[in-house]
Specification:
- This protein is α/β, with parallel strands linked by helices and 312 residues long.
- 42% of the residues lie in helices and 18% in strands.
- The protein folds into 2 domains: 7-124 and 278-312, Rossmann fold (3-Layer(aba) Sandwich), CATH 3.40.50.10950; 128-273, Isopropylmalate Dehydrogenase, CATH 3.40.718.10.
- The protein has helices spanning 10-19, 35-46, 58-68, 83-95, 109-117, 157-173, 195-208, 223-227, 229-234, 253-266, 291-310, and strands at residues 25-30, 50-56, 76-79, 101-104, 130-136, 144-147, 180-184, 216-221, 247-249, 270-276, 282-283.
- The protein has an 11-stranded mixed β-sheet with strand order 3-2-1-4-11-10-5-6-9-7-8, with helices on both faces.
- A hairpin with a 7-residue loop joins β5 and β6 (144-147).
């Protein structure tokens, strides 16, 4: 159902406004040694979303700030030798209870995630770690959560259970009490030759039996049937999810990555990104992300952190 919003980024603005109703989240930023990372930290702090703790080589941070004309003010800086050391120290701040969110600076994603998943010193929980894109697509009524397009390459059924549950709990944190979850495939019928259709059916039955909770699942659904009421009607699909889905579970990383980037580059969508399933939300930004997307990612992390704080 189209919304009369044009390309005004209304959905991301709503997320930021919702996040600003809560206390800023103390956020350890690993290796923020470039202009984009420091600008994001300063802007998110100015908007009262996060309270940054910069973790990295002090000399490099100071030079990057000076070169970009950025005033870091009284921001705390925790010195580190290099990017790997910065990732470890940022994770340690979380373990010590000094930070309730983690943010990627100008280091490689695998350097940060290696510290996150380290068996004895990382941030593992009983839940599988997964990534969600939150997409603000112009002329689409609701924000779309797409998962997993960045962490789990070819998830099996057991992993997909956690991917779905992580996405549902994120939707709750974003103010969606009963998310409509579409398990995507290339078709809407179960075909033994297409494994993703079998896994979709299994996930839906697991939800029926209470093994996945908090949302309404349907699948397999092709993308058009998941987000277009007209397409669902043409295929005679009768479902409360079909045509209305606000969470899209993709078969694998390749499908998710192409879907998210297609929306970004062909439909002018904004994308916020967050990693879930660790002890705290992880803001996993890309060098190609706009400032708007980075701020939205911070807002999503604040909402996820608040939801974690509020758990009994």
């Amino acid at each position: 159902m189209p919304a009369p919003e044009g390309n005004q980024h209304v959905k991301f603005k709503r997320l930021v406004e919702l996040a600003q109703q809560h206390s800023p989240a103390a956020t350890a930023i690993a290796h923020p040694c470039d202009k984009v990372s420091l600008e994001s930290a300063v802007e998110a702090r100015k908007m009262k979303l996060i309270e940054p703790i910069l973790v990295g080589n002090k000399a490099k941070i100071a030079k990057a700030a000076a070169d970009a004309g950025i005033d870091l003010g009284d921001m705390e800086i925790v010195d580190a030798e290099h990017s790997v050391d910065a990732a470890r120290k940022a994770v340690a701040l979380v373990r010590e209870g000094r930070a309730e969110a983690l943010m990627k600076g100008s280091l490689h994603t695998d350097e940060l995630m290696s510290a996150v998943v380290a068996r004895d010193t990382g941030l593992r929980t009983g839940r599988r770690i997964s990534h969600c894109f939150i997409m603000d697509v112009p002329d689409h009524a609701d924000a779309l959560i797409i998962t997993d397009a960045a962490v789990n390459i070819a998830p099996d059924l057991k992993t997909k259970v956690d991917i779905v549950q992580n996405a549902i709990e994120l939707a709750h944190a974003l103010g969606v009490p009963n998310p409509l979850v579409a398990i995507l495939s290339a078709m809407e019928t179960i075909n033994p030759d297409v494994p993703s259709t079998l896994e979709a059916a299994a996930l839906c039955k697991m939800a029926d039996r209470g093994q996945i909770t908090g949302g309404l699942l349907d699948g397999p659904l092709a993308l058009d049937n998941a987000i277009s009421l007209d397409a669902a009607a043409i295929k005679h699909i009768v479902s409360p999810v079909a045509g209305r889905a606000n969470v899209l579970i993709v078969p694998d990383l390749e499908a998710g990555n192409m879907l998210a980037k297609s929306l970004s580059f062909l439909a002018s969508a904004d994308a916020a990104g967050i990693v879930l399933g660790a002890r705290v939300p992880i803001i996993l930004t890309s060098r190609a992300d706009s400032v708007r997307s980075r701020i939205a990612s911070c807002a999503v992390a604040v909402l996820a952190a608040h939801a974690r704080r509020s758990k009994p």
